[in-house]
Amino acid sequence: MEFPATRLRRLRSTEAMRSLVRETHLHPGALIYPLFICEGEGVRREISSMPGVFNLSIDEALKEVEACASLGIGGLLLFGIPDEKDELGSGAYATDGIVQRGLRAIKATGDPKSLVVIADVCLCEYTSHGHCGIVNRDGEHFEVENDSSVALLAKAAASLAEAGADIVAPSDMMDGRIAAMRTALDEAGKQSTPILSYASKFSSAFYGPFRDAADSAPQFGDRRTYQMDAANLREAMREIEQDIVEGADMLLMKPAMPYLDVIREARNRFDLPMGAYQVSGEYSMLHAAFQRGWLEPERTMLESLLGIRRAGADFIVTYFAKDAAKLL
Ligand code: PBG
Question: Is 280 in the pocket of ligand 1 (CB under 6 A)?
Answer without folding.
Answer: yes
